[in-house]
Amino acid sequence: MIISSESRVFLSWEEGFCESGRLKVDMAERQQHEPQHATDPQLQSPPASKEDMISYVMALEAALLPCLPARELQAIDRSPHPSHQIDVERHARDFMEAAKKLQLYFIGLQREDQPTRVETLQKEIAMMEEELKVKTELINKQEKLIRGWRTELKDQLDKHNIELERV
């Protein structure tokens, strides 16, 4: 979770309380920058643009904007008016949705930094090809040496055969 110098956020799932400092975005801006999607955000691929990240940060700030200090939330929680509790739950849910989108975005960025399976296999293939090239050169050098030794041995054999014929 990102905690800036301007806002501190503490969220307790059990109680649904949050405490926030000064935030600059209002709910109207949030609704402008965050269109409603019918699909589940977990099933969508993580966003790849800076604008998407900024819109998620703005949505997170907008979700925190209406949050009151914890004491006031506790007082509202004990309030007999059910609409107060619904507001607290709605703001906590909005906050968690925005936090989830940010988390998915940063997970997507982290995955971009890691090589894909295809890239990993391509690197392994390139390394194997280089190793094959080096070993092929070594084999060719060894074969050349063996051919040289064979010619030397054949020359020596011919010399010995010539000497044996003389005798």
TrEMBL record:
Residues 118-145 form a coiled coil. The keyword Transcription regulation applies. It comes from the Eukaryota. GO terms for biological process: regulation of DNA-templated transcription. Residues 29-49 are annotated as: Disordered. The keyword tRNA processing does not apply. It is found in: Nucleus. Pfam families: Med28. Keywords: Coiled coil, Nucleus, Transcription, Transcription regulation. GO terms for cellular component: mediator complex. InterPro entries: MED28, Mediator_Med28. PANTHER family: MEDIATOR OF RNA POLYMERASE II TRANSCRIPTION SUBUNIT 28 (PTHR39117). Belongs to the Mediator complex subunit 28 family. This is Mediator of RNA polymerase II transcription subunit. It comes from Sesamum radiatum.
